[in-house]
From TrEMBL:
Keywords of this entry: Cell membrane, Membrane, Transmembrane, Transmembrane helix, Transport
InterPro entries for this protein: ABC-4_Integral_Memb_Prot, ABC3_permease_C, ABC_permease_BceB-typ
GO CC, any one term: plasma membrane
Name of the protein in question: ABC transporter permease
Any Gene Ontology biological process: transmembrane transport
Subcellular location: Cell membrane
Residues annotated as domain ABC3 transporter permease C-terminal: 63-180, 536-644
UniProt cross-references to Pfam families, sorted A to Z: FtsX
Amino acid sequence: MFYFKLAKTNLKKNSRIYTPFLLSIIFLVVMNVVMQVLLENKGMDTLQGADSAKVMFGLGSRVIIIFTLIFSIYTNSFLLKQRKKEFGLYNILGMGKSELTRVLFWESLLSYVITLVGGLVVGTIFSRLCFLVLGRMIQAAEVFKFEFSVKSYLTIVLLFAGVFLVLFLLNVVHIRRVNPIDLLKGGQKGEKEPKTKWISAILGIGFIVAGYIISVTIESPLKAINLFFIAVILVIVGTYSLFMSSSIMILKFLKNKKGYYYQPNHFISVSSMIYRMKQNAAGLASISILCTMVLVTLSTTGSLYLGMDNLLRNRNPYDFSATVTENSDEMRVKFESVMKKHNVKIKELKDYTTEANIMAIKKGEHYELLEKGNFNMSDFSKAEYFEVMTQAEYEKNATEKINLAPSKVALYSMSDPYEESTIKFGDLQYDVQNKIKHVDFLPKMEGIMNMHVLVMANKEDVAQLVKDFKIPAEEAVAETTVFMNIEGSDENRLAAAKELKSTIRETEQSQPISSMDIDRKDSQMFIGGFLFLGLIFGITFTLATGIIIYYKQISEGYQDQERFSIMQRVGMSHKEVKNTIHGQILMVFFFPIALAAIHLVFAFPMIDKLLMLFGLSNTQLFLYVSLGTIGIFLLIYLFMYWQTSKVYYSLVERQA
């Protein structure tokens, strides 16, 4: 019982450094409870897109588990550093390393029980709230409700038993490897002035610039998928190198500026930061990366959620449409009968027929055919898509006549405008007589590739193009797209759309069908869940940022007590001490958040392209959400700065 009582006393005595550690672990327990309860909830199986939702939340759960282990080890290292002197004192007073191991065991066990009980209680309450929020987001609150899951809670118990076992073993190994004198001085051990590592600094800046270049030069959303993780890794490696090497370069440059360095405030700030920069750099780089992750995650998920209408309209230009190769009149009759059955009014019902579909890559001045199923991802990312129709078919639905001359064409580009006056398909060249800016029956859509409608004078011209350009027979089949816009209650519209889709699938197995109402229901599940995960990750990474900052302030506060006490004895005023502390903290605090904001600015073009893969083409919305996210996070960051600075002041001013 002696070791148990000693461990209990130690937790109370070291409450200043133990409380943030325990609270952070409790928070991690809460996050894991939420994710596990969501995964095991029976209501998940009743939702549309249940398989996709389980995969998404499963990946989210793994990310949280990995983060839990890494962050627990990180915070434990701060805790151990502050307690080295205490363990060294116990060792010198006669307590051997075996006895210290027993104390550590009881401390770990007590911490485990406290965090597990606290985390499970708070996690259960918070999970209920999360189910209400998520149910509202995905419009499924009636079937998606909180349920107690023995399996989920058992998983959490075992997970954190493993986490604390790892922390206990790491602490034991560390204490057994260090002699008592080093333990006694470990908390106060200073650092030598680090050397400037020019090669590392240049590589760090080079990595970041390379990541930025990839982001700003990407043109295709498909290329963005392949290069996104490469750019992320480059920026992460570059950020750590930048803080480890370039920060030392900057501080030494300031030290050599005599007019700047030999002032009371600057002298102490610069000199103390140089000697601590090696240990500071990793923490500052971690803060910057975590801030970037928060900004990117919340900006992306927030944009998808707020831009859902834009996303749905891009994927569904009409309320309902179906492409058929058979009699389109029969399809129109089906549309009308199903809508009437469900008391849904048809506002608009039209159709148009395309004679051929071409996927081609522009090489030099002409296009080369890209056959379906015979291309790689690189080709696909550069491809353009042409729907070919006759002038008569175009004028059937359009409000204007184009009166094409023989062997001339009209062109409507949905994304990037076509600038040239001629267009060449292989050896065939056509004069572009009309560049159509708007088509009433074809809403302009931005997506993965540039899409065009190529209007030719007659079917003979189309046949000549098919023959000479060697378009495969399966791509030269006339297809009719029947589309409509409708009016009615959401419930009736959805029921009608589902029946109509089922009916069409019986006769047109492989043809595309688009429904605004079905897609909205599916998207609410996916994007609502995506935003929920974004919020969970954002909260988790924000907490991690705050904890790292807090421990950093405590660690440096204990180290700086004696330094500032000496400075006051040699004549430094209390006001000068406060100004010095303020300047030092300000410099350290705002460099990471400033770099995180710069990372987001340069990541903007790449993320914008990735959002197009979801169907979101509203760049302005993404810009506003990103700016709003930066503003809100900056306020939270300022609050963390204010709170943790008070801890640093209280430590330093006790002897100042």
